[in-house]
Amino acid sequence: TDGFPADRSNAAAVTFPMIEAGRGGRKYGGGFYDYPAEGPKTLWPGLAEVAEAGRETPSVEEARDRLLYRMSLESLRCLQEGVLETERDGNIGSIFAFGFPGATGGAIQFARREGLERFRARAEDFAARFGDRFAPPEAALRRLAESDALAA
């Protein structure tokens, strides 16, 4: 193998080749920048080539979803682990504490608005592509689905 982790992120696709090329940072003679003995630091000329290998430009919709899903998934994990006692706490806290978009109703309400099955499927797709941080917390999603069934 090439020494890369199995779930090779864009960051890893850039940093591992840099490290292999001896570009581990200023302490090692340079990283993203060259540090001449005199004058200001300058961007390393080889950076563009290395960065191109790790470039994946998501659509605006996907970039937005990845951000919203990560925050929503973490809020759901907090609900699942008992850090949050209620959905309301998660929704209000997400808006006022870390700036989740208020128009969504909050991080947990976002999952409900997406539809729990659609939300789960999209999170699983992200998890397959970007790692376990996108894995849906099943117990929390079950809890939301059960509360929906009770309300019906």
Written account of the structure:
The chain is an all-alpha fold. Helices cover 59% and strands 3% of the residues. The protein has helices at 10-20, 47-53, 60-81, 87-98, 107-114, 116-130, 138-151; strands at 33-34, 42-43. Strands 1-2 form a two-stranded antiparallel ribbon. A hairpin with a 7-residue loop joins strand 1 (33-34) and strand 2. Helix 1 crosses helix 2 (47-53), helix 3 crosses helix 4 (87-98) and helix 3 packs across helix 5 (107-114). The longest helix has 22 residues, at 60-81. It is elongated, with a radius of gyration of 21 Å. The N and C termini lie far apart (53 Å).
Q: Give the low-pLDDT segments.
A: 1-7
Please report the distance between the alpha carbons of the first and last residues. Answer: 53 Å
Question: In sequence order, what are the helices and strands, one letter per element?
Answer: HEEHHHHHH
* Rg from Cα: 21 Å
Sketch the major β-sheet: 2 strands, antiparallel
> Per the principal axes of the C-alpha atoms, what is the gross shape?
elongated
Helix percent reads 55-70%
